[in-house]
Specification:
five-stranded antiparallel sheet; globular
Length: 316
């Protein structure tokens, strides 16, 4: 079922106008692509989990040189991460003017005044409107030196009616390990969990497509297993487990013109049901050549904060 460009631009949730067969195909493909990307970074997940064990000082049984030998761990990695954060935070955020504006071209009083207004307004949005921004930034600066990279997701929250910039762990931001950059990767998936009641709220408000999802299954990653073990957490035995949601930023050809447009596809992993599809571009980002779409510049919601580039050329 082809959708014309005007419908794509005007529809809030494109999943509501696609037929069931096409939605089923999109949902299954999204889950398969996600699992393929997870598999590509399996060795990295093992290394990351080991690094987190060191930082969290996980107590392990030591059988050398004798069974149950003393196993004291000095918090060297934890101290180093705290010192990095303590130095990086004031270097990045020296005052309440978090946003700095640069003027290109010839300067003028009008440009200078406009730059000042933009700087003050955007700094206000971060410091005052986005209540969790400062705490999320602090968390990011702790995890970056331990894991090697971390991410910020910046978007407009339709429920809160304001912009948000939240910290996303590298373990929950999944791309193919050998991708070069966010701007050139074919897809990137933000994995998160929602309580069943929140999913129902989103469905009844029209934010998600209102379809039965069945029973949620528990998918435990390598990183999550290490996290549970290190913190002494036990997975709940109740049936109402949080639903794993995959928000995949990728490309689809919904208008059947041979060119894939940027979209965000939100899928419930357990059922592979598509909950939401929205465009990932603005109307002015569509470039037309000879009456055909020749290029679309996608909106990028994620910012990567890297510590040291991987020597093997991998993305993380």
């Amino acid at each position: 079922m082809a959708i014309d460009l005007n419908t794509i631009l005007d529809t809030t949730n494109l999943a509501e106008v696609l037929d069931d067969d096409e939605l089923a195909s999109i949902g299954q493909q999204a889950v398969q692509d996600f699992e393929q990307d997870v598999a590509s970074r399996g060795q990295w997940e093992e290394k990351m989990a080991s690094a987190m064990d060191l930082a969290l000082q996980v107590a392990e049984t030591k059988d050398f040189p004798w069974p149950n030998a003393s196993n004291v761990k000095f918090p060297l990695i934890t101290i180093a991460a705290l010192q990095f954060s303590a130095r990086a935070y004031p270097a990045l955020i020296s005052d309440t003017n978090v946003v700095k504006v640069r003027i290109y071209g010839q300067s003028s009083p009008e440009k200078t005044e406009r730059a000042r207004r933009v700087q003050e307004h955007m700094s206000y949005q971060l410091y005052e409107e986005d209540e969790e921004w400062e705490e999320e930034m602090d968390r990011l600066l702790i995890t970056v030196p331990i894991v090697g990279c971390s991410f910020k997701k910046t978007y407009f929250d339709a429920a809160l009616k304001r912009n948000r910039s939240v910290h996303v762990l590298a373990s929950d931001f999944v791309v193919d390990y050998w991708t070069k950059s966010l701007s050139t990767c074919g897809r990137a998936t933000h994995r998160y969990w929602l309580r069943p009641n929140i999913v129902v709220e989103h469905q009844r408000s029209g934010f998600y497509r209102d379809v039965p999802l069945g029973e949620a299954q528990r998918h435990t990653s390598i990183a999550q297993q290490h996290k549970d073990q290190s913190q002494g957490l036990v997975p709940p035995t109740t049936q109402k487990v949080d639903r794993e949601i995959l928000e995949q930023h990728g490309y689809l050809d919904l208008d059947d013109d041979g060119y894939e447009e940027p979209y965000i596809v939100t899928v419930d992993r357990s059922s592979a049901k598509v909950l939401r599809i929205v465009k990932r571009f603005e109307p002015e980002a569509v470039q037309i050549t000879n009456d055909r779409v020749s290029r679309i510049v996608a909106n990028e919601h994620f910012t990567k904060y890297g510590f040291i580039p991987s020597p093997d050329g991998g993305f993380y």
